[in-house]
Design brief:
heterodimer; A: Peroxisomal Thiolase, Chain A, domain 1; two-stranded antiparallel ribbon; 13 helices; globular; B: mainly beta; OB fold (Dihydrolipoamide Acetyltransferase, E2P); five-stranded antiparallel sheet; three-stranded antiparallel sheet; 9 strands
């Protein structure tokens, strides 16, 4: 097979993020959070607002590119883009779309971002539906199925039934992320360590998920500047190259109850594309940022990306294998959605860039290649592989 | 009293799925079946995913199924559910409808007794004058 034309042809040259706080604790609007993260990313890249000509996001981000361009003083917007689908499935996908814009010559410097103020606009852990629901929601909400935790509890139960996955294995994911957050002053859970017993003693939200199986609900924003590999050479930071990136969904994943498979995070096809495009295998991955909406979905993502066989994700996450510094596959080295902040996983994109620059607070020694897996179980999902 | 209160979000039937909800009011469970290739599908869609035909019927099915997965909600995610936890959410597979699955609740079984593969049968709960929901109970046979 010929080499994927976009391999190593684009790069992330700047990252930015706001202060992260628990939902409802920021005094700033979601729109201001978006503006702050974007400006920080531009400054980090050593660029000027006037260099930026594209903006893209995902998950129905409320902060429209045209308004952001007006607020920030971007003189000409050449590319504005939204990836369909809710949840964190578009984290790498928004970067993918930015890459395509710069690779095709449609724009020069594109900022991918996600801003989320659950205090201002409502918590994901509560019903966000109206009194009447139609379409897919009509087949869930009237039966009490109103939150992501409930959906993914049903999937995780199925995985436990088929493969013997245990609550303590779910807990191992949460403990790893929390451990990493103890090194990261940005993390909402910095200074609040957690043991496996703490996880086991935390209250049940929706069995099999306990409180500490669930991601945080936060206010914050994160952003990254994408440009061509050629232009990246002249930027302030050492470029982080995008080896491969992919997005999409497998067969029949759109209607929740009747989705074709429950015991998967929906990455099978997307991960296959990813590895082919990047030209690497799971063994080449030094560190991974694997979106945690809920712990059980991380285990399925690890299986989908070929780090172990299907059904073996539970045992895989035990024994410190996913923990920095000694684990063979450290994941979510900033604390991730479970312990740093929940910006729909874009904070995992910025952490991946830090790992490739060598500036993470849990820096994996000599790390050269980092995987980002965005939004397990939703549709579409997306993936990318970065290199130093 | 219905398994869950009428104050949580209820279906607004659309042109694509009104016959499903109308059948529930008649205490019938109907599932879309393609008239061209016979493939069942759920949730309702205007077109067959197998052969892309728009020609379909609403086939009355037995309402006998098995539990495909289940969860127990202990944290109320809607104000109307504050005093109604815990409750279960199940996914039920319908063998006589091409193994399509639907989200529902098992109304008569404590959570500890639910299991994957458990036989269940449909019951209809009139939640409002407009809406009757298909729920399930432990199979008698």
């Amino acid at each position: 097979m010929s080499v994927w034309p976009m391999r190593d042809q684009t790069a992330i040259v700047g990252i930015g993020e706001t202060e992260y706080t628990k939902w409802g604790q920021t005094r700033r609007s979601e729109f201001q959070l978006a503006c702050e993260a974007i400006l920080k990313a531009i400054e980090d890249a050593g660029l000027n607002v006037k260099d930026i000509d594209g903006l893209c996001s995902y998950a129905g981000d409320r902060n429209e590119p045209s308004l952001l361009a007006t607020a920030l003083g971007i003189p000409q917007l050449r590319f504005s883009n939204m990836l369909w689908g809710g949840g964190g499935g578009g984290g790498s996908g928004a970067v993918h779309n930015a890459c395509m814009a710069v690779f095709s010559g449609s724009a020069n410097h594109v900022v991918a971002f996600r801003a989320l103020a659950q205090g201002q606009f409502g918590r994901f852990g509560q019903s966000r539906t109206g009194q009447k629901v139609s379409g897919g929601q009509a087949y869930g909400a009237p039966f009490g199925l109103m939150t992501p935790a409930q959906r993914f509890a049903l999937q995780t139960r199925r995985h436990m039934h088929l493969y013997g996955t245990t609550s303590r294995q779910l807990g191992a994911v949460a403990v790893a992320c929390r451990k990493h957050a103890q090194h990261n002053p940005r993390a909402i859970m910095y200074g609040r360590p957690m043991t496996l017993e703490d996880h086991q003693n935390s209250r049940m939200i929706v069995d099999p998920f306990r409180l500490y199986d669930c991601c945080l609900e936060s206010d914050g924003a994160a952003a990254a500047v994408i440009t061509s590999a050629e232009r990246a050479k002249n930027c302030k930071q050492r470029p982080v190259y995008i080896m491969g990136v992919s997005q999409g969904t497998g067969f029949q994943q759109g209607s929740f109850a009747d989705k074709s498979k429950f015991d998967t995070a929906n990455f099978e096809e997307v991960a296959k594309d990813l590895y082919e495009r990047a030209g690497v295998t799971p063994r080449d991955i030094d560190v991974a940022q694997i979106y945690e909406n809920f712990t059980g979905m991380v285990i399925m993502s690890i299986e989908n990306h070929g780090f172990c066989k299907k059904g073996e994700g539970g045992p895989f996450v035990e024994g410190g294998r996913i923990e920095w510094p000694d684990g063979e596959l450290p994941i979510n080295t900033s604390g991730g959605n479970l312990s740093e902040a929940y910006t729909h996983g874009f904070e995992l994109v910025t952490e991946a860039v830090r790992q490739m620059r060598g500036t993470s607070t849990c820096q994996v020694k000599d790390a050269e290649i980092c995987l980002v897996a965005s939004g397990p179980g939703v549709t579409p999902v997306s993936d990318m592989i970065l290199r130093r | 009293m219905p398994y869950l209160p009428a104050e949580i979000p209820l279906p607004q039937p659309t042109v694509d799925d009104a016959p499903f909800w109308e059948a529930c009011k008649r205490q019938e469970l109907v599932i879309q079946r393609c008239k061209n290739c016979g493939t069942f599908r759920h949730m309702p869609m205007p077109v067959c995913y197998n052969c892309q035909s728009f020609d379909f019927e609403w086939a009355k099915v037995s309402g006998e199924g098995t539990v495909y997965s289940y969860a127990n909600v202990t944290y109320p995610t809607h104000p109307a559910l504050k005093d109604r936890v815990p409750f279960n959410i199940v996914v039920v597979e319908l063998p006589d409808a091409g193994n399509v699955r639907m989200t529902s609740n098992v109304v008569d079984t404590p959570f500890e007794e639910l299991y994957i593969g458990m036989p269940v049968e449909v019951v209809f709960e009139e939640v409002t004058e407009q809406i009757t929901l298909p729920r399930f109970k432990r199979a008698q046979t």
